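Quiz preparation item.
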């Protein structure tokens, strides 16, 4: 089955699923179509065919009925019943806002054309931002259904949505929404998944393809997964991800932060596929702790990949559909644990869907038909607090959200560009993917533009709370051969020794990409069997802006005289006293020595050229000895370790800049013997 992304209004969907809210059987008076000799037969024939499909009450049948009714409308645009049915068909289609003129004409011509005409006209007004008029009609309709508690609750929900819409629409957010026409087609596109650096996008489409047939339920091709890559200025050719697509429906619903794992949706369950070089592995199902007898759909990983958030409980039958957000954590053995539901301040009695974890590891974006939605799915965000609770969801506001469905929002790590699936005036498929640029006041607008915009409509800024991250990218290669290496990369918080992020470099080209929140001092460890591990330090404590750091890494194979830099060993100023933040790095050296019991090493200390020669030689020797002593105290025999200080005799960079001097202040270890 397909993820339910179609902007169908909740109540209208019920028509085909449960007779408790069946449409009134409205008959078109065919005598009103015998107005003139020419065209009468064609008009009556179109009505007959339209009625045939209309009475099937499915999305595809409503769309077919609409085409016939519009032909008959050209013959007689004044018939109240025909206008009513065209309006209902439009409400069942992607372009529900187009229903307004037809339902309004029907109501004006014959206010009793159907007992529920106020309800459908109210929905059409809601979709067109005429919230006060919609509320008035909904309230007028309520006495007719006072004996039906279910219908009453549905209409009251619509009134609440309109009230929300009035509040949200009064404070327009400063952003620019653009149709991604290079990616979209005349078919459905949805569910974009973006890599952290914004260079690659995966999405689903029902455009004509060679891997699947046409679904007779709605006369569209089965969905396939597609990918597009972006160069410095534009998105490239859209390519079918053939290795993951089958003859049926194929859908990508989540992407790991390193871009190496896709979460897939097949037949009600979640699967995953891993990128090996340029090939995706055969999809494997998540375990039964995640997949259940219910439907599991949208999903996302936590930053460290140890938690999976996913939606469970969506059902093709809208009367049963109530997708809630669950999570599962990996245990010490790497097994996914039993899933638990997120708290009630996140889940609602209505559907939640479209999960995305931002690169800060704390912010989850999702869509919901509950909370203070203005209609259909609205996009919300929640933050994971330090005590593992979740903040109350915040509606992302207008114009990001509309009275129709706005869903599958994702955000690049720069925190200024996002993407979503929605319907807008310039949509030319059934659903399209749009880019959202959060501009902020004064960006892309001069002062006069801001003044005019502010007078026309009050403007507020989307509360993105400065969720700043840094992306680190590069290649990992063999120092001797220059060939790419598929190495393990681990990012560690040096103050807590907590693993923040882990990934692997690509086996084909050695490329890697990691993203980390600012405000901490991180160690990056790169390791591969047969090589010395390499460490890098990224001190982001004082960083406040988004950055992209390029760092290529050369790994040395384990052999005599090979050298590795220990970038996460820290000393007090002008002292050999080791700081606590050095412990994770020191323990890695200890473990490396235990894993290679026949290895002997030299620990070398190095300084910059500030100060006199003797003082620097003394300090570098003392620091090397402090490191050697720590390793020895952890059970490594002293005869396997030599401590040597070189002062500023062996610089690796210029001493004429602060950056160069920082590189020269270092600790290294060199293999002196290896059997």
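Solution:
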């Amino acid at each position: 089955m397909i993820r339910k992304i179609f902007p169908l209004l909740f109540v209208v969907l019920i028509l085909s699923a449960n007779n408790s809210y069946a449409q009134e059987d409205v008959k078109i008076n065919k005598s009103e179509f015998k107005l003139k000799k020419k065209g009468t037969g064609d008009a009556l024939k179109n009505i007959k065919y339209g009625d045939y499909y209309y009475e099937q009450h499915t999305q595809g049948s409503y769309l077919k009925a609409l085409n016939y009714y519009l032909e008959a409308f050209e013959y007689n645009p004044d018939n109240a019943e025909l206008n009513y049915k065209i309006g209902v068909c439009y409400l069942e289609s992607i372009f529900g806002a187009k229903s307004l003129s037809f339902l309004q004409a029907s109501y004006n011509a014959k206010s009793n054309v159907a007992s529920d005409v106020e309800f459908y006209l109210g929905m059409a007004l809601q979709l067109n931002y005429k919230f006060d008029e919609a509320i008035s009609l909904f309230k007028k309709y309520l006495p007719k259904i006072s004996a039906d508690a279910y219908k009453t609750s549905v209409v009251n929900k619509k009134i609440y949505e309109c009230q929300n819409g009035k509040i949200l629409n009064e404070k327009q957010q400063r952003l620019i929404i653009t149709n991604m026409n290079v990616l979209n087609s005349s078919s459905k596109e949805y569910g974009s998944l973006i890599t952290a650096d914004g260079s690659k996008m995966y999405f689903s489409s029902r455009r004509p393809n060679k891997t699947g047939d046409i679904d007779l339920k709605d006369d569209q091709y089965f969905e396939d997964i597609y990918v597009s890559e972006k160069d410095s200025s534009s998105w490239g050719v859209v390519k079918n991800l053939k290795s993951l697509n089958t003859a049926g429906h194929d859908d990508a619903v989540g992407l790991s932060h390193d871009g190496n794992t896709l979460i897939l949706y097949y037949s009600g369950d979640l699967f995953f596929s891993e990128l090996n070089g340029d090939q995706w592995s055969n999809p494997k199902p998540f375990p039964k702790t995640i997949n259940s007898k219910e439907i599991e759909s949208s999903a996302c990983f936590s930053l460290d990949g140890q938690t999976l958030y996913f939606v469970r409980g969506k059902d093709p039958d809208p009367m049963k559909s109530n997708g809630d957000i669950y999570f599962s954590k990996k245990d010490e053995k790497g097994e996914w644990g039993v899933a638990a539901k997120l708290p009630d301040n996140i889940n609602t009695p209505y559907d939640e869907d479209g999960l995305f974890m931002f690169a800060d590891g704390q912010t989850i974006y999702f869509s919901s038909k509950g909370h203070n939605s203005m209609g259909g799915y609205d996009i919300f965000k929640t933050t994971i607090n330090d005590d593992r609770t979740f903040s109350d969801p915040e509606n992302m506001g207008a114009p990001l959200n509309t009275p129709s469905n706005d869903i599958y929002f994702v955000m690049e790590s720069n925190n200024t560009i996002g993407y979503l699936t929605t319907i807008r005036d310039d949509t030319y498929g059934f659903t399209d993917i749009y880019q959202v640029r959060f501009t902020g006041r004064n960006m892309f607008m001069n002062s006069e533009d801001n003044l005019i915009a502010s007078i026309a409509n009050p403007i507020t800024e989307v509360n993105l709370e400065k969720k700043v991250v840094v992306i680190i990218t590069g290649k990992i290669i063999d120092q001797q051969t220059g060939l790419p290496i598929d190495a393990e990369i681990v990012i560690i918080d040096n103050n807590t020794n907590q693993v923040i992020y882990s990934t692997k470099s690509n086996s084909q080209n050695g490329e890697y990409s990691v993203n980390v929140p600012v405000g901490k001092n991180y160690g990056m460890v790169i390791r591969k069997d047969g090589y010395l591990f390499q460490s890098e330090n990224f001190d982001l404590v004082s960083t406040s802006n988004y950055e992209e750091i390029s760092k290529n890494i050369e790994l040395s194979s384990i052999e005599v005289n090979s050298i590795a830099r220990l970038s996460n060993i820290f000393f007090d100023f002008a002292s050999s006293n080791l700081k606590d933040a050095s412990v994770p790095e020191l323990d890695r050296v200890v473990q490396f020595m235990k894993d290679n019991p026949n290895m002997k090493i030299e620990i070398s200390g190095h300084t910059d050229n500030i100060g006199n020669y003797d003082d620097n030689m003394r300090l570098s020797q003392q620091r090397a000895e402090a490191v050697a002593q720590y390793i020895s105290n952890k059970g490594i025999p002293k005869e396997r370790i030599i401590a040597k200080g070189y002062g500023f005799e062996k610089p690796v960079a210029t001493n004429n800049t602060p950056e160069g001097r920082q590189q020269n202040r270092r600790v290294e270890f060199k293999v002196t013997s290896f059997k």
